[in-house]
Amino acid sequence: MISLPTLPPLAGLLLLSGPISDPSGPEQRAVSYLAEEVPRWRSANGCASCHHNGDGAHALFRAIALGVPVPEAALSDSVAWLREPASWDDNGGNGAFSDKRLARIQFARALSAGIEAGRIRNRSALQASADRIASDQQPDGSWPLDGPDTLGSPTTYGWSLASLSALEVLRNADPDRYRTEIDRATSWLRSRPIRTVLDASVELLRPDDPGSPTVSQRRSQAIALLRRSQADDGGWGPFATSPPEVFDTAIAVLALCETDSEEARRMALRGRSFLLSSQLDSGGWPETTRPSGNQSDAQHTSTSAWATLALLATRGIEEPDAADLPPAITPDQNPRTADPPTP
Using one digit for the tens of pLDDT, what is the confidence trace for 111-129? Predict the structure, then answer.
């Protein structure tokens, strides 16, 4: 069985082995790549970014918390930036990824991970950022982003992943202080239809609410969608019939690591295999973009950060015994058909 930590989703990656000592191993290569990439952006562009100083820094902080060595210089610039949430809205950059509400969530998520890793000790900064995030919440419990509620990407998240990330920031900052906002967010996420791989992953990643009569049904539906949607090479695309993408696979793997079943472990390991086969010589990954096939430095860094988290979460997991697994789905069962409507 997968041994789950008593930590919140997204922050609660699995510590399944000791510090990584093999510099040629996939996890260390990924971390080493981000350690060079994360500080590059601000010095080259004169502004902080949610993809480098947010997503990339978050992955490095998580690596530190799991015992992976990261040079202090790789995060010194991000640490200085994250300590000052009052400055986040004026980061000197405007462009395709300048949604300030989302940026506040991404920076706060990285700040929370930095505190957990022991690289940032200023909890008052987390409190200040959580206050602002709480004020951004809509009455229905969501954190809507600029533009329509469309399919999320590594850097733009989408409404569900952004709202889940905001919820986790509030839980890490002070679950009692933000109880009303947390409950509203949980209710909103629980009401979302499960139609895409990201929908299913967010459902499995969100905190348990055992008082809801629909929890078990929704979790089963999410697992079923991921089962049907997994490609022969182990990856997932955004939809059940889409070609696999690194981001969608990484999110699915992280979600399955929060599910205590042998079947989930098998699916997660197949997803890990896809990520290993997709890793570039540099240690990073090809960017996932919407639509697929475009080029984006921002999406490349965020994609690499999410994939790094997935590798860290699955290192040390052993293959389950075949006798403990349910029968594999056969091709005649058409495993990659469209998902039925959410009840």
Answer: 999 999 999 999 999 999 9
